[in-house]
Amino acid sequence: MGPAPHKTLAAMVPTYGPLIHLRLGSVHMNIASSAAVAAQFLKTHDANFSSRPHFLGIEHGAYNYEDLVFAPYGPKWKLLRKISAVHLFSNKALEDFRHVREEEVAVLTRALTRSGSDPVNLAPLLNVCTTNAIARAVLGKRVFNDGDGAAGQESSDFKEMVVEMMVLGGTFNIGDFIPSLKSLDLQGIIARSKKVLKRFDAFLSKILEDHKISGSDGEKHTDFLSLLIKMKDEANTEGVQLTDTNIKALLLNLFTAGTDTSSSTVEWALTELMRHPKLLVKAQQELDTVVGKNRLVSELDIAQLPFFQAIIKETFRLHPSTPLSVPRMASEDCEINGYIITKASSLLVNVYAIGRDPSVWPEPLEFKPERFLPGSEQAHIDVKGNDFDLIPFGAGRRICAGMNLGVRMVTFATATLIHAFDWVLPDGQMVEKLNMDEAYGLTLQRASPLVVHPRPRLAPEVYGAY
After folding, report:
1. Which residues are annotated as a binding site for heme?
2. From the annotation, which residues make up the binding site?
3. Which of 111, 142, 324, 459 lies in disulfide reach of 132, CB 3.0 to 4.6 Å?
4. ∠ at Cα 384 (1, 322), nearest 5°?
5. Do strands 19-24 and 27-32 pair parallel, antiparallel, or not at all (unpaired)?
6. Is the pLDDT score of 465 beyond 90?
7. Which CATH class is domain 5-463?
8. Is the pTM here over 0.90, yes or no?
9. Nearest to 443 by CA among 205, 182, 200, 266
């Protein structure tokens, strides 16, 4: 499949069509590469494809399916999904924590202002911002630094763990497809998965124990983790008993799927705008008109920024954070496009290929936000699983639980950065030659980090004390 299986599979579509069956060892793998075929799997037959196949890397690297992302479809998954949807990702919860996101992005802005004449590697700073924003909602406190926005050794180690887990999650492990080779761990994936989970478990166990201790001392907590601990201590919750492992596994999902996906998408958006300076200027003019130059953007401003919203949609189309969906598995035989999909066979949706389908998207390889502007043919398309032409978060029952948070965080952070700064490459580099290669994993990182000079463009007092 090569180093970029999403591209390899997309290249097969003109020859073999949008529904491809591959026999990978003992596994029957079905790949959906068009909106129409994806809709049959994720809408018409959604219930039949609501569970996950078992993979060794996930078994040893994600608490043996005790989490939300990889858990089999059933009562415990439904409970974890419901708790997250109501208390963390609902519109009310997102609005309650809007001030947290705005404060952490302001911290990032101040950190960038302090860079002076030195070029900045944007990825670590974005990761600190998104991680602290999630941590304050989930834990009631930051996990990195004390509000200075800097990327220290602890945050660098954390990002390294997240990237390692995402790479392992997206690696085709031969032991998953040829069971007789499973115990040999020929690629070392099981060993690496155990190692990274051990590091994550130490990080999460300390968070959990510190929270329990501070709670037992009479300190009042109203955050998401406190709710989980309270529910665990209850005798039974909707017929399901939560455990410490479930809680750590859910925290693992939030701190992996919820951090690097958002920060890498912001990085891709800024990269595309730097490569298209006319679009960047147009977006800045829109922001200046709506927001002015005497304050930072607020999330409440986003609704008045149609061109900027189009930029974010176009970024999700060209650079989906998860190019191949997390695999699903058929619970029973069913028929798709006249073909029988057998029970226990796996499904991958090639989100990358769907977003670049030339029958849907004119000039599919070009970054053209205007395709989403009001009055255009594709203006109605959103990213929330209703329009299968654009499904960066998936669709159906197993759609990304944190989709609404992800959209808000990516949109708001990107808007703030392009409003607050002009972006200049280090001496000797040209935007026309920016490296646009992808580093494949469960999420789609930039192969080389975006290193830039941020130049403040707003009134000096906007950036606060630094």
Report:
1. 400
2. 400
3. 142
4. 20
5. antiparallel
6. no
7. mainly alpha
8. yes
9. 266
